[in-house]
Amino acid sequence: MIDAAKKIEVVEKYMVAVSTNNLDLIREIYADNATVEDPVGTPPKEGIAAILAFYGGFGALGVKLQLSGSVKCAGNAAAFPFTAQIGSKTLDIIDVFEFNNEGKVVSMKAYWSAG
Question: Is 3 a catalytic residue?
Fold first, then answer.
């Protein structure tokens, strides 16, 4: 199991990666066989190619992420609240990352609603 400091480092790296549309950093964060369910209830994106395509679509939107509270770590997971600024719209989101023993994200679930 990786320690809390490493999990928090990955979360902070994620904030930068999405905010700067850095797909190389996204690739560094996720395991090759990872899944992304964003938002929860939608079909998961499975595998690094699908995940990179998903985040690649954010580039034109100018998405900016910012932590809005502390990262909570337990077991092999980290949960964290943040805001996503997309143009004039702000979304309040909670993501949950599950990590493998190498410190890569194997599962990301995003909890948010358009309302």
Answer: no
